[in-house]
Amino acid sequence: MFIISTTISLQTHAVYAENKAKELCSEYDGEWDNGKCKIKDDEDKADYEDDLCDDPKDTKKYKKICKSDSDD
Asked: Using H for helix, E for strand and C for coil, what is the string for 28-43?
């Protein structure tokens, strides 16, 4: 029972995180393509990354985008 609920919880968060990323991408006039957001304006791109990475769980899902300086 615990394994099932943990799996569902992880899947639910993954869907939430991707939906959040898609929604934010659209808000910053980006184009969602193949699991990535393409934003032309550098300032909008930085704002998108800040908004996307405000949740620690999303930071784990989007490691490449939410990479902190300490991860280098």
From this structure: CCCEEECCEEECCCHH
Q: Residues 47, 58: contact at Cβ < 8 Å?
A: no
Instruction: Give the amino acid at 41.
Output: D
Residue 8 has pLDDT above 60, yes or no: no
> What's the length of the chain?
72
Tell me the torsion sign for CA atoms 13, 44, 68, 38: positive
Q: In the numeric block, which tokens belong to residue 53?
A: 């990475």
- Residue 20 buriedness (CB in 10 A; 0-12 / 13-18 / 19+): middle
User: Can you give the pLDDT at residue 40?
Assistant: 95
CA atoms within 13 A on the CB side of 5: 2
